[in-house]
What does this fold into?
Amino acid sequence: MEIIFIFLILIYSIILHEISHGYVAYKLGDPTAKYEGRLSLNPIPHIDPIGTILLPALTFLTSGFIFGWAKPVPYNPYNLKNPNRDSIYIALAGPLTNICLAIIFSFLYKFFPLQAFLFGLRINLVLAFFNLLPIPPLDGSKILLTKIPLEIYQYLEIYGFILIIIFMIFFFPYFSNFINLLQNFLIRI
It folds into this structure.
């Protein structure tokens, strides 16, 4: 039963991350996500066949670690009043949602020390801070886009997936230590 609960926490942490992007875009004037049915808690519209099903299954079976993504929520910058500023708000919405969820799970874990709540805390910290990395297509790269020339961003975008793999191979232990520090801090406060 706890495995099902952990799976639901993972799925809905990812879905809420994506919904928050679409909701902020909608509030800033772009209805694209709403028109495409992406402001829904129904997991079906958020499934990317490769990123949500195939890759997580392969990474789990080969390494015990789950890596994947949901279908990114689209937005049209031409519908925004201030595209540069509003794009930053839209990009930050997903990670901020995961930080809020991590805080909620830390409180739940204090009162009900279940492994599922500890998992919810940890996975939301991972989702928040991994997505803030300035590597395309992660959310942090959308913030970087407003600070560097478009040509450099487009060059980085070509190699984004390779850069993520390099990060996972060489820097993930440091990232994991950072997540451990944040997790322990939230449990203690």
Observations:
- The mean pLDDT is 91.
